[in-house]
Amino acid sequence: MQTLIIYSTIDGQTLAICQKMKTIAEQAGEQVALVTLEQAEALSLADFDKVLIGASIRYGKHRPELYQFVNRHHAVLDTKINGFFTVNVVARKPLKNTPETNPYMQKFLQLSLWQPQLLEVFAGKIDYPKYGFFDRTMIRFIMWMTKGPTDITGTFEFTDWGKVDAFGNRFSQH
């Protein structure tokens, strides 16, 4: 199996999750290419048997380039074994951590011509010390509004790595 894993990340948590997916797929005997959304534009999706895309949220949105990519390539994606996951801090909440209940996944499905076969939602990470002043201030305000962590000296990882493993295994078994 030739597997392509594409990621769209801002701070790196989606890449970390994709790296775990790559390891799981390789352990299942797949040949895996892990690339950015921009790098994927130069590849022929027809060369792959499986395609998995992971994308993060910033300020309530996936990057416009994600929609451009999936809408341009949805016909080819539909011919592959495929999956999509979104990474967002809202998913730290139990009532918003499934594809059916996560508002960002639901919005993606509404705006995308591509309707992936396998879906998942992962909670992300807040790394206040890594952010510039504007992002740190905005993210802190959003966290204050949603009763999340506001200590700007802290890093808060919400990702459930057991859930990542389970989805990686599910994708590899398709």
Automatic annotation (TrEMBL):
Primary localisation category: membrane
Transmembrane segments: none
Cofactor(s) listed in the protein's UniProt record: FMN
Molecular function GO labels: oxidoreductase activity
Domain Flavodoxin, chain residue ranges per copy: 4-152
InterPro entries hit by this protein: Flavodoxin_dom (IPR026816), Flavoprotein-like_sf (IPR029039), HemG (IPR044264), Protoporphyrinogen_IX_DH (IPR052200)
Cofactor binding remark: Binds 1 FMN non-covalently per subunit.
Pathway: Porphyrin-containing compound metabolism; protoporphyrin-IX biosynthesis; protoporphyrin-IX from protoporphyrinogen-IX: step 1/1
EC number: 1.3.5.3
Top enzyme category: oxidoreductase
Alphabetic keyword roster: Cell membrane, Flavoprotein, FMN, Membrane, Nucleotide-binding, Oxidoreductase, Porphyrin biosynthesis
Role noted for this protein: Catalyzes the 6-electron oxidation of protoporphyrinogen IX to form protoporphyrin IX; under anaerobic conditions uses menaquinone as an electron acceptor, under aerobic conditions uses ubiquinone as an electron acceptor.
Similarity comment: Belongs to the HemG family.
UniProt protein name: Protoporphyrinogen IX dehydrogenase [quinone]
